[in-house]
């Protein structure tokens, strides 16, 4: 970004992003004839937001051929506007940070957005956080009196406490911050993350994706009548590992804490989650995601029986 110390308007930032995307497109196509684009915007964008989005493209040298609402674009992509017997389409767009639900009406090949609803505070990140809390032992499932991952939160606390102590005693080494110094002193961290709150959220996302892929694989086997190599009596289970400290290690390190001693005492902490546990953990979020759909149908005086097609888009819709 040129002269980055000066204030930059949002549409200018957008123009830089569009420039980058245009360059990727040109590299992929092998020519620089990309001069115009169709823009997709959220259905709830007002006129000002649409103008500013278009301005970002204009400043990037890309002509705006048309502005299409995202739900309409999704329906067009699936060709539902040409499908017989389709009058109402529900578009369920579940992304990483927000949920948008729109109802479309199809008439003579034209698609109109009848209404939209959603939850701006619900997305894939909330599912990652729910899994992270489960992994740290904050969540009780299956009617158990104790969390499945009991004791994992203490591991996170021990690591965080010693990291704070290291940060206080470590001076910058050749301009490296503590994270960089740890990466240099602890080669194992290039393969396995520390047991920290942030890494648990990252691991939560990885386990969520792994379970989704495992379920998809099982569904494909059932559809193709292909025997699975896994025992059918066992449900999918995914595993992850982080590096933590036990109480004995902390006692030793309290007496003599250095980067090298910290790294030396790190040991693997194993985490696991089953498909059933995941379903129980995220069920409140799934219930919450259904509310915008119910509100939208109620506002438009429709029922679920009036919906002819459902289009699910966004990464979280696959989770």
Automatic annotation (TrEMBL):
Is Nucleotide-binding given among the entry's keywords? yes
Show which residues constitute the signal peptide.
Answer: none
Tagged with keyword ATP-binding: yes
Q: Which Pfam families match?
A: HSP70
Q: Name one GO molecular function term.
A: ATP binding
Domain of life of the organism encoding this protein: Eukaryota
Chain residue ranges for the region called Disordered = 213-237
Keywords per UniProt: ATP-binding, Nucleotide-binding
Tell me the SUPFAM superfamilies matching this sequence: Actin-like ATPase domain
**Sorted alphabetically, which PANTHER family does this protein's record hold?**
HEAT SHOCK PROTEIN 70KDA (PTHR19375)
Its family remark reads: Belongs to the heat shock protein 70 family.
Q: What is this protein called?
A: Uncharacterized protein
Give the originating organism.
Entomoneis paludosa
